[in-house]
Amino acid sequence: MCNCKNKLTDFEKYVICEKGTEPAFNNEYWDNKTPGIYKCKCCDEVLFSSEHKFDSGTGWPSFYVPIGKILEAPDFTGGMVRVEVMCGNCKAHLGHLFGDGPAPTGLRYCINSTSLKFEPKY
C-alpha cells in the first residue's frame, strides 16, 4: 500500500498511508458543490462523482455510491467496528463506509478530502 509516498506531504502520508483522518469541516471538499469527478490522489483512479455526493452533516465529503473500484476491509481501530474503504487500484486509504446514507443505497462513503483529487466538469 501507499506506493505514492514520495509525492505526498507529511499530512497526506498520515491520512493515506497510515489510515489517519483529517479534521471535519476543515478539509478541501466537504462543502464542494462543483460538478465533477473525484479521483485517487495516489493513482488517479476515478472513484466518485459529484452526482452521488450529498451533505451528510459530518464535515467530510460523503457519497452514496462509488463509480470506480473500491475495496472494503474491517476496521477495529479506535474501539469501533467500521468498514475501511480503499482505492481498488492502489489500496490508498480513503475513509470509511457506513449504513446511514440516503436512498437508493442507504450507504455513506465518508471520504477524506486529503485522499482525493477533484476534476471539475466543464
List SSEs in N-to-C order.
HEEEEEEEEE
Task: Tell me the strand percentage band.
Answer: 25-35%
Overall 3D geometry?
A: globular
**Helical segment tally?**
1
Overall mean pLDDT score? 94
Per CATH, the class reads: Mainly Beta
Strand order of the largest sheet: 3-4-8-7-6-5
Q: Biggest sheet: strands, sense, closure?
A: 6 strands, antiparallel
The count of DSSP E runs of length 2 or more, i.e. the number of strands, is: 9
Query: Quick one: CATH superfamily?
Result: Peptide methionine sulfoxide reductase
Distance between the termini: 33 Å
Portion of residues within helices: under 10%
Task: Explain the overall architecture.
This protein is mostly beta strands and 122 residues long. A hairpin with a 5-residue loop joins strand 6 and strand 7 (93-98). The radius of gyration is 13 Å and the shape is globular. The protein is built from one helix and nine strands. It has one domain (5-120): Peptide methionine sulfoxide reductase (Metal Binding Protein, Guanine Nucleotide Exchange Factor, Chain A, Beta Complex). Keywords: Metal-binding, Oxidoreductase, Zinc. It comes from Caminibacter pacificus. GO terms for molecular function: metal ion binding; peptide-methionine (R)-S-oxide reductase activity.
